Structure formats: structure tokens, C-alpha cells
Amino acid sequence: MKKLIPCPCGRSCGRKLLDYFWCPTVLRLSPANITEWTLPKGKFKFHFHNSAGLIYEIQECIECIDKGLTGSSKMTSEESVLLSKLAETLRAQLGVCDYAIDL
């Protein structure tokens, strides 16, 4: 199990995030409901932690392109926009609104 890190909000909110929350290999819904999986091994060492997990997105893109599709039913454009709006809302609530840090 990965270590827990303090919430990045900078306040003493008591929330904890799993280390590497942006590329998890563990889904913890409750102490009794934990799912853990391993990522595929690559031929070469990856530069970023858990980058091997991107293979699932790559495989879906290849399948959609092969079928002549411009999008995936597994992750629609509408869902992507919704996630972007959610991330923007969370950043505002956490006080991380300086988008210059993303450049």
C-alpha cells in the first residue's frame, strides 16, 4: 500500500491522499473495500512514476482510429469537459488558481 500524503490545500483539513494520486494503482473506497492492481512492465524504464498506465489510453486511441472513430464511448468529450470543470472547481476551493504554474 502506498503512503498517505497530506492534502495539498495547505490547511490542516485532515484529508490524506495516496502518494501518486494522479496515476494510482490502488482504489480505496473504504477500509474494507480496497482494490489494487499492477501495471504492465515496459521494455525500458519510464521517466515518470506509473507512466505504464498510459498504455490503456493509447490502446483505446488506436482502437478508435482503426475503427474510424473520432472519439471514444469509454470517455466522451462531454465527460472530458466535465472533468476539466471539476478540476477547475477543486483548484478554486483549494486556492490553487494560478494557472501560470501549469505552463
Automatic annotation (TrEMBL):
Protein name per the record: Trans-1,2-dihydrobenzene-1,2-diol dehydrogenase
